[in-house]
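Agenda item 2: zinc ion complex prediction
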Amino acid sequence: MFFLFLLLCATVAYAQEKPLKPRPDAFPPVPGALDSKAVTMATTIEEMAGWDRYPTYETYIAMMQDWAERFPGLCKLDTIGTSIKGRLILCMVIRGEGTHNGANPEFFYSSTMHGDEVTGYVMMLRLIDTLLNGYGINQQYTDLVNTVDIYINPLSNPDGTYRNGNSSVSGAMRYNSNYVDLNRNYPDPFGTAPINAQQQENTAMIDYIGNHSFRLSANLHGGSEVMNYPWDSFTSSENPHPDRDWWIEVCKRFVDTSRTYSNSHFRDVNSQGYIEGGDWYVIPNGRQDYINYYHNCREMTMEISSDKTVSSSQLPEYWRFLQHSLVNYIAEIHTFAGNIGITDAEGSPSAIRLYPNPTHDKVFLQGETDSDIVVLDIKGREVMRLPAGTQSIDVQHLPQGIYLLHTGTQSAKIVKR
Ligand SMILES: [Zn+2]
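Presented output:
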């Protein structure tokens, strides 16, 4: 009882401090909240045909495998890793036929790291289906798939979603099976250590991201309808993202497009439908800032449904107003060049690239270097100097942390694990 009183006081104090609707991410889940929703499950691929059901875990796996078998020239099924309880964390990689040469930029969609926020889970499955079946028929989808390598991870916290067993998403929870919030469990670029040890689901995700060069991504959540752009760790007045103006344009296009299909959405946080994350609510150790900072990938958090779990019969309506925005967002990868906030006068990509990054031993350097390569620690002290043309740098002896590599006028971050 006393605890409830404290919670109430804290909530009242918070509400007075923050004029905006509190970020749902900040609160513990309401047990059983999903049970009041009408959740119909699909136990076969055929039962997903109307897209008005949630798939059982087995149906989900079967759908992903089915696409991989039916469209072998167009997609491949990757396993990012497994959850603590051994469920698969999958990613569908969609590439145009004949474009498997690594020349296209890589895009990443990932959903439902909060297990009960399942609208995005079905939206991502339907997006995979739409792109694969539309290739060669719909010009926009064909052009997109031919010019971008599209990675889609529909479910990044399967243990949370299927907490009560593989046969239903009823009773899903936010956390993984260790009751850890995966979106407070990433290395924080700005110095806050996560409360919990890095969870298996996140380690797998970090490795997967580290093995790719995603340039644009989005992380789908529910509980509100707002486009949340970086940073989450700061308010925009404290530390604006270097690409803030670009983010705002992208958010406007996403929201405007969805509102042409349903004008009532993206209004529950503010009227414009987008916000800088920290201006809404500052959070540490989130995935969005981690990816932006450590991987030079522009990631935003899309809160796409006011209800964390919409009734299954409402799923087609969410697709109707989101589908064009979700597709168009992938194409935003063509609206910028290069690394975050770092472009030369022509706006062409920075010429050097480091991989793998983060790394624990070696980092390889791709691109021309014609002057000394200098590695500085976070305090600006030189820790290594290598001749121009060096292509592999051994960082095993360096303590964990962030380092800055400079050569000529170019610079890049190295993250030592
Ligand atoms: Zn969430």
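Discussion summary: Residues 1-19, 26-35, 342-350 have pLDDT under 50 and may be disordered.
Owner for follow-up: CH.
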